[in-house]
Design a protein that fits this description.
By secondary structure, this protein is α+β, with helices and mostly antiparallel strands.
Length: 140
């Protein structure tokens, strides 16, 4: 059904069910449910967001993200790997298969981005650090 909080769950149940002390039991459930507690947390788990430093040259600082769940193309691609240069805002939109692993995505990255622009100094990604660490940019 989901983890909507006391009021929403009570209203959904009230439309189809009734028992004595129903609201009290819904409250008790929500106050004990780990998923409800996490999704309805009153405290902010993160600090204040700080802006990224400004980029000074093209393709030194990039951001990347993944667009998933698209309709399949004739070649079977159903996702887009997006790489954006933070300086010029130029972007590469690279089609790939949702089931591709980090190894395949890193090969796409080197073939479509590094080949043309060189290795970036920084990468900003909302994705799992396993992917970025798989690229293995050594220092030196």
């Amino acid at each position: 059904m989901g983890h909507f909080g006391v009021d929403k769950i009570f209203e959904l149940l009230k439309g189809k069910f009734f028992w004595t002390h129903m609201r009290k039991e819904v409250q008790r459930h929500c106050h004990r449910c780990i998923s409800c507690l996490k999704s309805k947390s009153k405290t902010m788990p993160h600090g204040i967001y700080t802006p990224l430093p400004l980029s000074c040259a093209p393709w030194e600082d990039i951001s990347m993200n993944f667009i998933l769940g698209l309709p399949r193309t004739q070649r079977g691609f159903d996702s887009i790997f997006v790489v954006v240069d933070r300086f010029s805002k130029m972007a590469h939109f690279i089609p790939y298969h949702k089931v591709d692993d980090a190894n395949n995505i890193s090969k796409l990255f080197f073939r479509e981005v590094v080949r043309l622009h060189g290795l970036p100094k920084t990468i900003v990604s909302a994705r799992d650090p396993k992917f970025v660490s798989h690229l293995s940019f050594g220092k030196g």
